Task: inverse folding
C-alpha cells in the first residue's frame, strides 16, 4: 500500500481531515471516502463533466484532480446547493422545465450552470449553449436544460 | 364507470427530480456492501486470436487480490450463454473468452480485489499468450466462403438468413414504368448512457443463491439467462435493478452479470464491477452496421408499387441480438407508405467487431434511412419535389386501420398533415426560394425531409421466425401490483424499470385517476426487485412498450383495488357499491355527499380491523394484474407476424448550411412534428422527442465507432468518439398531432425511440439537398466534413461507406 497523504478540506461547509493515497482522485475521495455520491463519474477523462464540483468558487472536473491536490480547499458539491428549506432556483427551474431525464449528468450540469450565471446573470441561448458545452447530457438534447437556465436567470436569484 | 381524467394529460413536474438533483444514492455505483470487492478485467488486444496460455500466478499473489477467473473457470462453472432468442445453431459464448478471443476488448481474465485500483494493478500482472489470427470485419467479406470463421462450431459466419416475399412483387415490377436502385450503408454508433454498465453480486453458499444488483432492460429474461448459466432455479437468483443513468438499449449484457456473479462466488465476498468509459465504448455494444440494397418499382406518377430489400447486418462477435435488427427493420419497412408488395432478404453475419445491442430504435434508424433515401431517389428520378413524392405515397388518414403487406396493422395517424405542419414551420416554399437565390452566390443551403412510423411495443413472437415455433417466449405484456396503504396513499410495483423516462410520474398520474387520489399520494417503486415486483417474461423497459403495456397492467391492478375499496366502503356506509362515488380522496354515496368516508378511513379498516366482516373475503387492499396484449400472436404460415402493437409517427424537417470550402455542416433549424396519440405527460413526452432527435442528429453527423484494418477500435474515449454538446446541437422545435390509438386504454402510442429513427434520414436528405449544385448523393452515414471534402475534391457523385 502506497504512502498516505493527509489533507484537510471543507466540503459543503463541513471540515474533513483524511489520509488519502496519492492516486486517489478527488471524485473517488468525495464519493467513497466522504459518501457524497451525488457527484458522478461518467468518463474519467475530463470530457463529460458529470463529476463537476466547485473548488474555491470555480468548477473543476473532480476526475482529473487528485484529492491530495485539494488540501486546504473549499469544495461545493451538489449536496451543498439546496438548503434544508428550499431547492436552489436552478433546481426548481430544472424540475419545472423537465430539464433532466435519467439525472446522471444533472448534478454536474447544475454546478456548471451556477458558474455560468455567476459570470453572466442574463445569458442568451447561444451563451448558455457555449457555457454548458463542457457537460454532456445524453438524454435531453439540451433543449429543456437551456430553457431551465434561461428561466432561472430571469428570476435574478440563481447565484 | 371510468372517472374523468384529472391527472393524465398534465405536464406535471416529475416525482423523480428532487431526489436526482439534490443528492446521490440512486445509481448502482452509489450502493455498497460490507467487504465488497471490486473487479477489473484483462481484455483482448486482438480482434481474433487463439489463447495459447494464461498465467495468473503473479496476479493471484498480488496483495489484496481475492479471486481470478479465466475462460477455463467459466467453461467449467457455467453453461454457454442462452441467447435472448435461442438460435437453432448457436455458437458457444461464455462470460469471459474461452480458448479464443473474438473482438478487441473481450474480457479474458476477471480479477476481484480489495479495490478497483488493486484489481487493475493485478490485471497488469496477468500474462496471456495469444496466437493472433486474421480477423474478419466487413460483413460482406464475412459472407465469402473462404472468410475466416468467427465461431468455427457453426460452420459459417451467417447466424441467420431468410427471405420474406409479401404480396405480388414480380407483378408490381412488371407494372412499373421505372425501376430505381439504391445501395446505402449505416455505421456503428451507440447512444452511450452517461452512467456506464454496473453490477454488484453476492453469493450465499448455504442456499446456493445469488443476490445481484445490476443493469438490464429485460429483468425477467436476464434473470433466466443468469440462472441457466449457473444451472440453478430462477428462484435462486434475486435480481435488483436500481434506476439507471440512461440505457438506450445498451445495458443488455447478461454475460457481464454472470462474470461478476462467478467472481463473487469464487472470492467468497460481494463483488462490484463498474465499467469504465473505455470498456464501455469497446465492449458494451454498438448499433449494428449494415448494408442495404434496394430496388423500387415506380409508376410515372410517382407511386411506389413495391420495393425489394436485401440487408446485411453485422452482429459483431455476439449472438444475443441475432436477426433482431433485421426483423425489426422488416416489421417497419413499409414506413408511412402504401407499398403494395415488399420482398425482404436479411442476413445476420458475425464478425470480429464488438457485439451489437438494441441501440435506441434498433434497426429502425437504418430502415428509415434506407426507405427515405429511396423516396428521395425516386423524387430525383422523376424530378418531383421530395415532399410531393411523399404526399403521393402516404397512407391516407381515412385508410386506418391499415394493413401492411408484411402483416402489421397501423392503428391511426395523419401523415400528410404531419408533414404539412413540419414544412409550414420552416416555410418550405419561401425557404426553397431562398435556397435558389443563395445558390447564385454559391451558398449551400439544404432542406431535409423524412417521415417515419414509430412502433410501440414488440410482440416477441417474432423470435419464432428465427428459432422456430418451439420458442417459449412470445407476445408482449407487463405485470403490476397496486397496494393501498393504511393512510390512503398507494404504492405501485411493476416489472418495468427506470432509466430516465419518468415512468414513475406517468404511472402515478394514471393510478391517481383510477383511485381518485392526488398524484402525490401515489408512490411508484423505481428500483425493480425480482423478490417483490411482479413480472412476466416480456417485462422491462424497451421497444416503446410502456404506453400500452405497463400502463394497462397498472390500470388493471388499480381497478381491482378500486373494486375492493368500493365493496369495503359500501359495507361500512351500508350502501350499494354501484351507488358510490370515488374522488378527491373520498368515497361518498351518490346524491348524499354527507354520507362519506375518506379513502384513508376505509383503507385503515382493511388492514387493522380483521374482525370486520370481509366483504371481499379477505382483508387488505392490494391487487396484482398480469397483462398480455391480445393483439400479439404467433407468426402465420406466410411468415407474417404482427410484431408492432401500435404505430406513432413523426415528420422531421432539417435545414442545414454547408460551408462551401470546409464542408462544415451547420444545422440551422430542426423541426419535429410527431403523433403519439394521447399523451400521459406532455412534459415528459417532449423531452423524449428532443432527446431521441439529438441521438439521431449526432449519429448522422458526429458519432462513429471506427476500427482499423486489424479490428482495433480507434474511438475509445469521448475525445475521439464525438458526443454532441449543447453548442453542437440545434434547438429542436416542434409540434404535435394527436390521433388517439383505438388499441390502447388511454389512446396512447409509443414514444421515445422515434426521433432517433427519423433524424439520420432527415439530416442526410438536408445535406444532399444542400449539395445538389455539386450533385453529391448521400448513401452512407455518418456525414463527415473531411470526407465530404474528399468526395467533392475528387469530383465524386456518391458519398458512400464513409471510412471503411
Result:
Amino acid at each position: 500500500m502506497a504512502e498516505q497523504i493527509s489533507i484537510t478540506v471543507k466540503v459543503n461547509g463541513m471540515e474533513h481531515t483524511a489520509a488519502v493515497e496519492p492516486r486517489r482522485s478527488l471524485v473517488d475521495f468525495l464519493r467513497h471516502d466522504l459518501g457524497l455520491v451525488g457527484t458522478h463519474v461518467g468518463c474519467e477523462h475530463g470530457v463529460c463533466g458529470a463529476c463537476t464540483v466547485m473548488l474555491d468558487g470555480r468548477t473543476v472536473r473532480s476526475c482529473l484532480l487528485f484529492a491530495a491536490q485539494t488540501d486546504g480547499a473549499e469544495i461545493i458539491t451538489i449536496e451543498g446547493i439546496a438548503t434544508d428549506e428550499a431547492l436552489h432556483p436552478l433546481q426548481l427551474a430544472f424540475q419545472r422545465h423537465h430539464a433532466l431525464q435519467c439525472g446522471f449528468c444533472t448534478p454536474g450540469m447544475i454546478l456548471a450552470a451556477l458558474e455560468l450565471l455567476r459570470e453572466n446573470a442574463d445569458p442568451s441561448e447561444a451563451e448558455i449553449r457555449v457555457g454548458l458545452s463542457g457537460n454532456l447530457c445524453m438524454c435531453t438534447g439540451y433543449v429543456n436544460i437551456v430553457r431551465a437556465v434561461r428561466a432561472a436567470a430571469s428570476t435574478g436569484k440563481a447565484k | 364507470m371510468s372517472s374523468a381524467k384529472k391527472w393524465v394529460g398534465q405536464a406535471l413536474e416529475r416525482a423523480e427530480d428532487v431526489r436526482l438533483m439534490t443528492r446521490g444514492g440512486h445509481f448502482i455505483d452509489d450502493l455498497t456492501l460490507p467487504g465488497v470487492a471490486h473487479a477489473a478485467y484483462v481484455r483482448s488486444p486482438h480482434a481474433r486470436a487463439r489463447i495459447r496460455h494464461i498465467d495468473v500466478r503473479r496476479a493471484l499473489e498480488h496483495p489484496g487480490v481475492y479471486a481470478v477467473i479465466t475462460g477455463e473457470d467459466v467453461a467449467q462453472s457455467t453453461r454457454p450463454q442462452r441467447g435472448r432468442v435461442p438460435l437453432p445453431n448457436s455458437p458457444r459464448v461464455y462470460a469471459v473468452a474461452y480458448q479464443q478471443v473474438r473482438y478487441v476488448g473481450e474480457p479474458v481474465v476477471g480479477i476481484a480485489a480489495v479495490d478497483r485500483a488493486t484489481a487493475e494493478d493485478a490485471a497488469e500482472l496477468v500474462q496471456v499468450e495469444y496466437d493472433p489470427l486474421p480477423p474478419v470485419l466487413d460483413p460482406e467479406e464475412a459472407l465469402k466462403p473462404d472468410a475466416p470463421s468467427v465461431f468455427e462450431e457453426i460452420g459459417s459466419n451467417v447466424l441467420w438468413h431468410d427471405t420474406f416475399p409479401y404480396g405480388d412483387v414480380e407483378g408490381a415490377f412488371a407494372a412499373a414504368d421505372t425501376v430505381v436502385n439504391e445501395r446505402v450503408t449505416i455505421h456503428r454508433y451507440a447512444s452511450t448512457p452517461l452512467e456506464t454498465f454496473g453490477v454488484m453480486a453476492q453469493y450465499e453458499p448455504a442456499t446456493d443463491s445469488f443476490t445481484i444488483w445490476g443493469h438490464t432492460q429485460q429483468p425477467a429474461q436476464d434473470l433466466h439467462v443468469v440462472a441457466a448459466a449457473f444451472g440453478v432455479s430462477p428462484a435462486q437468483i434475486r435480481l435488483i435493478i436500481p434506476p439507471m443513468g440512461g440505457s438506450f438499449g445498451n445495458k443488455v449484457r447478461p454475460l457481464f452479470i454472470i462474470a461478476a456473479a462467478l467472481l463473487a462466488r469464487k472470492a467468497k465476498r460481494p463483488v462490484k464491477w463498474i465499467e469504465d468509459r473505455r470498456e464501455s465504448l469497446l465492449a458494451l455494444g454498438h448499433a449494428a452496421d449494415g448494408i442495404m440494397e434496394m430496388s423500387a418499382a415506380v409508376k410515372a406518377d410517382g407511386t411506389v408499387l413495391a420495393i425489394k430489400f436485401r440487408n446485411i447486418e453485422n452482429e459483431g462477435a455476439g449472438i444475443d441480438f441475432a436477426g433482431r435488427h433485421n426483423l425489426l427493420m422488416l416489421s417497419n419497412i413499409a414506413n408511412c407508405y402504401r407499398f403494395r408488395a415488399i420482398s425482404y432478404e436479411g442476413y445476420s453475419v458475425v464478425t470480429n467487431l464488438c457485439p451489437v445491442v438494441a441501440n435506441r430504435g434498433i434497426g429502425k434508424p437504418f430502415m428509415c434511412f434506407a426507405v427515405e433515401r429511396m423516396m428521395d431517389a425516386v423524387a430525383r428520378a422523376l424530378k418531383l419535389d421530395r415532399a410531393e413524392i411523399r404526399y403521393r405515397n402516404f397512407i391516407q388518414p381515412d385508410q386506418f386501420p391499415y394493413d401492411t403487406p408484411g402483416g402489421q396493422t397501423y392503428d391511426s395517424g395523419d401523415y400528410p398533415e404531419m408533414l404539412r405542419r413540419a414544412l409550414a414551420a420552416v416555410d418550405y416554399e419561401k425557404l426553397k426560394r431562398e435556397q435558389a437565390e443563395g445558390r447564385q452566390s454559391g451558398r449551400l443551403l439544404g432542406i431535409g425531409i423524412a417521415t417515419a412510423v414509430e412502433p410501440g411495443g414488440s410482440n416477441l413472437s417474432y423470435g419464432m421466425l428465427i428459432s422456430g415455433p418451439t420458442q417459449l417466449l412470445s407476445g408482449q405484456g407487463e405485470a403490476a401490483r397496486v397496494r393501498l396503504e393504511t393512510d390512503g396513499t398507494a404504492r405501485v410495483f411493476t416489472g418495468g424499470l427506470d432509466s430516465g423516462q419518468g415512468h414513475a410520474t406517468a404511472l402515478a398520474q394514471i393510478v391517481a385517476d383510477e383511485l381518485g387520489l392526488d398524484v402525490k399520494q401515489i408512490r411508484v417503486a423505481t428500483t425493480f426487485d425480482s423478490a417483490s415486483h411482479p413480472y412476466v417474461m416480456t417485462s422491462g423497459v424497451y421497444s416503446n412498450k410502456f404506453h400500452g403495456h405497463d400502463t394497462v397492467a397498472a390500470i388493471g391492478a388499480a381497478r381491482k383495488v378500486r373494486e375492493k375499496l368500493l365493496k369495503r366502503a359500501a359495507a361500512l356506509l351500508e350502501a350499494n357499491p354501484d351507488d358510490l362515488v370515488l374522488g378527491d380522496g373520498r368515497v361518498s354515496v351518490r346524491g348524499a355527499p354527507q354520507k362519506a368516508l375518506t379513502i384513508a378511513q376505509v383503507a385503515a379498516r382493511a388492514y387493522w380491523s380483521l374482525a370486520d366482516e370481509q366483504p371481499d373475503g379477505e382483508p387488505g387492499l392490494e391487487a396484482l394484474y398480469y397483462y398480455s396484449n391480445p393483439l400479439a400472436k404467433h407468426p402465420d404460415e406466410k411468415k407474417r407476424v404482427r410484431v408492432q402493437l401500435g404505430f406513432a409517427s413523426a415528420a422531421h424537417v432539417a435545414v442545414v448550411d454547408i460551408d462551401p470550402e470546409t464542408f462544415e455542416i451547420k444545422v440551422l433549424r430542426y423541426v419535429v412534428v410527431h403523433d403519439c396519440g394521447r399523451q400521459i405527460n406532455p412534459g415528459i413526452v417532449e423531452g423524449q422527442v428532443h432527446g431521441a432527435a439529438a441521438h439521431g442528429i449526432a449519429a448522422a453527423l458526429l458519432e462513429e465507432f471506427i476500427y482499423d484494418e486489424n479490428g482495433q477500435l480507434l474511438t475509445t474515449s469521448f475525445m475521439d468518439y464525438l458526443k454532441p454538446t449543447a453548442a453542437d446541437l440545434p434547438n429542436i422545435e416542434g409540434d404535435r398531432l394527436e390521433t388517439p390509438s383505438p388499441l390502447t386504454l388511454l389512446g396512447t402510442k409509443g414514444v421515445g425511440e422515434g426521433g432517433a429513427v427519423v433524424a439520420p434520414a432527415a439530416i442526410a436528405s438536408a445535406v444532399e439537398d444542400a449539395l445538389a449544385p455539386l450533385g453529391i448523393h448521400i448513401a452512407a452515414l455518418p456525414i463527415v466534413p473531411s470526407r465530404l471534402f474528399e468526395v467533392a475534391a475528387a469530383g465524386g457523385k456518391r458519398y458512400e461507406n464513409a471510412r471503411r
Observations:
- The two ends of chain B are 61 Å apart (CA to CA).
- Chain B touches chain A through 59 residues (CB under 8 Å).
